[in-house]
Every structure is written in structure tokens, then in C-alpha cells.
Amino acid sequence: MGLFSKDIQTMDDLFMHTLRDIYYAEKQVKKALPKMAKKAVDPALKAGFETHLEETKGHIERLDQVFTLMGVKPKGVTCDAIDGILKEAESVMAEVSDEHVLDAAMVAAAQAVEHYEITRYGTLSTWATEMGRPDVATLLKQTLAEEEATDKKLSKLAKGHVNQAAAA
Ligand code: FE
Ligand code: FE
Fold first, then answer.
1. Among 12, 27, 47, 74, who pairs with 67 as Cys (CB 3.0-4.6 Å)?
2. What is the pLDDT of residue 6?
3. Residue 3 Cα to ligand 2 middle (Å)
């Protein structure tokens, strides 16, 4: 870090930057989920958002543990990708008038968020393993599994009835 050198020089630096990116992202998701739960009319979707809000709080705690294991103070760094995904979600949600179509739009937006998290946790857990930190990799893989499960639940809800209700 300095005037004459770039901030990210080593794999350790890159890992830490990406960890801070997902830390910021999880905190933004934590802010967005209650709004989505409030707007959802389908009871299963509403419950799904509420459940994932609790899981998301757990993801933040797990990241706190990862920072501690790495001997670093937890800190986020602005993640343009999640800001963009959430901004797009908000603008689409604001455009939709029908409440069932809004449910379908929120499932789609939530899946974009989950896919972003899946890519980040997949990369971070692989890097942690390669850096000889199986302890860190285990924590990251636990969250990865929850994000994947959430994505599958959202697909099931969409195909099960949310999309049909929106199309009716
Ligand atoms: Fe998460
Ligand atoms: Fe998630």
C-alpha cells in the first residue's frame, strides 16, 4: 500500500481483498433481505427470505471468524458487483405493479445475489485450501453450501408456483 506500489501484490493480498469484498457484500445483502421479505406476498417466499436473512447473519459471523483466523481485523471494501446487482433489483422492483410479478422478479434478483456469493465463496475456499488454510476453507465451504442450497430453494419456489402465479 503506498504511492509507488499497488495494493494487491501477493495471493495473500488478493485473498484478503476478496474476503473484504464478500464481507461488504454480505452486509449489503443483510440490509436488502428484510425489504424483500416485507414485499413478498407468497408465504413460502417471504419465509425463505426471512430464513436466508438469519443465514446471512451467520455468514457475516463466519467471515468475522475467518478474519480472526487470518490475524486481521474484519473490514469491508466496496463491492461494485453487489451494489450493481442490488441497485438493479431495486429499480426492477420499483417498476413492477403486480404483486405476483413482483415475487417472480424478487426470486430472479435473489438468485443473481446467490450466484454472486457462490462464485466468491467458491474462489475463496479454493484459494484458502491452496494457501494451506484448511481451517479457513472449511468455514468458507459451509457458507458456500448454504448459498447453493438457497439458490436451489429459490429455483424450486419459482418453478413450483411463483412463476405460475405471476403468469396467471
Ligand atoms: Fe451469504
Ligand atoms: Fe446468500
1. 74
2. 81
3. 36
Distance from Cα 32 to the centre of ligand 2, integer Å: 11
Domain ranges of the chain: 11-167
Topology given in CATH for the domain delimited by 11-167: Ferritin (1.20.1260)
The DSSP H or E segment spanning 149 is helix 134-157
Question: 26-57, pLDDT tens digit by residue?
Answer: 999 999 999 999 999 999 999 999 999 999 99
Residue in 51, 36, 45, 28 with CA at minimum distance from that of residue 94: 36
Task: For the beta carbon of residue 34, count every other beta carbon within 10 angstroms.
Answer: 12
The cell numbers describing 125, all together, are: 475456499
Q: Give this prediction's pTM.
A: 0.94
Distance CA 168, CA 163 (A): 9
User: Could you give the CA distance from residue 105 to residue 45 in angstroms, rounded to a whole number?
Assistant: 12
Query: Which tens digits make up the pLDDT trace of 90-106?
Result: 999 999 999 999 999 99
Report the separation in Å between the CA atom of 128 and the middle of ligand 1, taken as the mean of its atom positions.
18
Q: What separation in angstroms does the CA of 129 have from each of 12, 22, 122, 125, 132? A: 12, 18, 11, 6, 5
